[in-house]
């Protein structure tokens, strides 16, 4: 009687075990879609985010004029003062259609409008969205208000909406914004090469970053620590 030799078992290495664990973890992700983000007020002790509306136009005109941030290279999402009303109207239409959710950022003390930000590229099924079109008044740079804004938005995304990932997309030459995203704790996922043609005809390569749900606890602690240090 003939017998078939047994196939030797494939040795398990740390790398193969790690890949197997990663595949198991990926396969076990629930498929339940997240709820659609709504235009709600978000706030912490530093900032108050109000759903964007026509009442914020004058405040945002002052924001873009503060430090002339609309002149910053590689940031065409920042409107010139005379473009603010048109941009707000277009953004509100997008919000009403359910494609985006936008906020005006106000100082918690005093209520001055200091910025603008948006949830976009929302994928309910994949429980993922992009945080973008953010701009803050020049006088707030380095004050921690941007970090406080991100804390409010990311807390809402991960702890209330149940996002699995929050994405950031930045022009490859916008080094200031890239460093700011990296300071949040976001990891670079890759670069979309020749991704967009800019208004002046130049080519934008888009650097993609993200924060994942299982990274949020550490990112949140880091943001809270940064804001605590600023209060000292």
Molecular structure report:
It is a single chain. By secondary structure, the chain is of the alpha+beta class. The chain has one domain (35-231): 3-Layer(aba) Sandwich (Aminopeptidase), CATH 3.40.630. Helices cover 34% and strands 27% of the residues. It has 6 helices and 8 strands. The chain has helices at residues 14-27, 57-65, 84-96, 145-160, 175-184, 216-231, and strands spanning 42-43, 47-51, 101-107, 113-123, 128-136, 165-171, 187-197, 203-212. It has an 8-stranded mixed β-sheet, with helices on both faces. Strand 4 and strand 5 form a beta hairpin. Helix 4 (145-160) packs antiparallel against helix 6. The longest helix has 16 residues, at 145-160.
Which helices and strands appear, and what pairs or packs with what?
Elements: H1 14-27, E1 42-43, E2 47-51, H2 57-65, H3 84-96, E3 101-107, E4 113-123, E5 128-136, H4 145-160, E6 165-171, H5 175-184, E7 187-197, E8 203-212, H6 216-231
Parallel strand pairs: 5-6
Antiparallel strand pairs: 1-2, 2-3, 3-4, 4-5, 6-8, 7-8
- Percent of sequence in beta strands: 25-35%
SSE-based structural type: alpha+beta
Q: Count all strands and give the number.
A: 8
Distance between the termini: 84 Å
Please give the domain count. Answer: 1
Radius of gyration: 21 Å
Quickly give the CATH architecture. Answer: 3-Layer(aba) Sandwich
* CATH classification class: Alpha Beta
Helix count equals: 6
Question: Which strands sit side by side, in order, in the main sheet?
Answer: 1-2-3-4-5-6-8-7
Q: Report low-confidence residues grouped into runs of 5 or more.
A: 1-10
The whole-number mean of residue pLDDT values reads: 90
Write the CATH homologous superfamily.
Gcn5-related N-acetyltransferase (GNAT)
CATH fold topology: Aminopeptidase
The shape, in one word, is: globular
N-to-C series of helices and strands:
HEEHHEEEHEHEEH
* Approximate helicity band: 25-40%
Largest beta-sheet characterization: 8 strands, mixed
């Amino acid at each position: 009687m003939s017998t078939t030799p047994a196939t030797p078992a494939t040795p398990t290495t740390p790398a193969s075990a790690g890949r197997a664990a990663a595949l198991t973890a990926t396969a076990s992700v629930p498929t339940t879609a997240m709820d659609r983000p709504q235009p709600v007020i978000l706030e912490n002790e530093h900032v108050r985010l109000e759903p964007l509306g026509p009442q914020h136009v004058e405040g945002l005109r002052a924001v873009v004029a503060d430090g002339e941030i609309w002149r910053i290279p590689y940031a065409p999402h920042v409107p010139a003062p005379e473009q603010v009303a048109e941009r707000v109207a277009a953004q509100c239409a997008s919000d009403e259609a359910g494609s985006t959710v936008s906020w005006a950022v106000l100082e918690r003390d005093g209520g001055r409008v200091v910025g603008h930000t948006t949830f976009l590229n929302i994928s309910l099924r994949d429980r993922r969205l992009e945080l973008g079109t953010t701009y803050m008044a020049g006088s707030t740079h380095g004050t921690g208000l941007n970090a406080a804004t991100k804390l409010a938005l990311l807390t809402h995304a991960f702890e209330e909406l149940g996002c699995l990932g929050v994405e950031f997309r930045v022009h490859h030459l916008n080094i200031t914004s890239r460093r700011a995203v990296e300071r949040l704790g976001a990891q670079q996922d890759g670069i979309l090469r020749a991704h967009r043609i800019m208004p002046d005809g130049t080519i934008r390569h888009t650097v993609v970053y993200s924060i994942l749900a299982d990274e949020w606890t550490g990112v949140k602690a880091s943001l809270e620590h940064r804001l605590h240090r600023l209060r000292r």
